[in-house]
Amino acid sequence: MFCCFGLSVNPGLASELTFLSATPPPEIQGASAIELDAGGRAGIVLSDRGSIFRIGIDRAQGQSPQVNVQRLPRSLGGRDLEGLAIGPQGSFVAMESPSTVMRLATRERLPTHPAFEGFRHNKELEALAIDSNGALIAIGEGRVQSGDGFPVFRFDGVEWEIDAYLPQVGLFRPVGADIGPDGWLYILERGVGVFGFRSRILRADPAAIETSLTEILITAPGRHDNLEGLTVWQSDSGATCLTLVSDDNFSSLLRAEIVEYALTETLAPGMSCD
């Protein structure tokens, strides 16, 4: 059903990830990015209309997570926020129209790359992560040149460069990314068709993205809704956990959800991300 253009991707097994839960987040609409702390109990969610939310997650063993939400007063005034990355260097957001990466605390805009201007409207920067060396990684949802895949940009503190290209597989496009506690780069892709949304998660060595991409999840149409943000963290029990957030586009026809999976190989029998 799906064809692949450009680079190949090693096929993964669905059992590499175990589904844990799907929880409606109260009072959050238009969620586009998420970051959780190391224990997965607190974090930040961005809205694609510029709102910033602080969330707390109660993780009682054997029960579904309970989400508490606080809207922060310092919003970004209706700007289209799409990516979030938090590290020792600070917090950064990626925005569309125009494609920009900004330091959240100071509102300082980082330099741009000429390719940022080549994106089509609403197919611009979507995913943002920080690697172990402190370099920002940004991924575009659109292709900047015919024949190329989706560009992966790396910012070394001075300038951006295109570090790799992700292959286009069917209708999937990259919408979220994070560096996990294991040092791997995790990439969330979204596809939409007549039967609903599909999600795909890739994993790669951030130092060799093009040659190490592996698919670790692909969902059936409608399994989840419009999953758009991804954060990867380690639970107290040692599991590598993936928390994803869906964008309901401020529409009653879509579901706002916080969805959680865990790497099956790190998940002890009978345990979850608590």
Descriptive tags:
disordered N terminus; 4-stranded antiparallel sheet; Neuraminidase; single chain
Structural notes for this entry:
The chain has a four-stranded antiparallel beta sheet, with no helix packed on it. A four-stranded antiparallel beta sheet has the order 3-4-5-6, with no helix packed on it. It has a four-stranded antiparallel beta sheet with strand order 7-8-9-10, with no helix packed on it. It has one helix and 22 strands. The chain has one domain (4-266): Neuraminidase. It is globular. The protein is an all-beta fold and 274 residues long. It has one helix at residues 209-212, and strands at residues 4-5, 17-23, 31-36, 42-47, 52-58, 66-71, 81-87, 90-95, 100-103, 108-109, 125-130, 136-140, 150-155, 160-166, 168-169, 173-179, 185-193, 196-204, 214-218, 227-234, 240-246, 258-263.
* Tally of separate helices: 1
Tell me the strand order in the biggest sheet.
2-22-21-20
Q: Assign the CATH topology.
A: Neuraminidase
Proportion of strand residues: over 45%
Q: In percent, how helical is the residue content?
A: under 10%
What is the total tally of β strands? 22
Structural class: mainly beta
Unreliable residue stretches? 1-8, 10-14
CATH class: Mainly Beta
| Tally of distinct domains | 1
Instruction: Specify Rg, calculated over alpha carbons.
Output: 17 Å
> What overall geometry do the principal axes of the alpha carbons give?
globular
CA distance, first residue to last residue: 37 Å
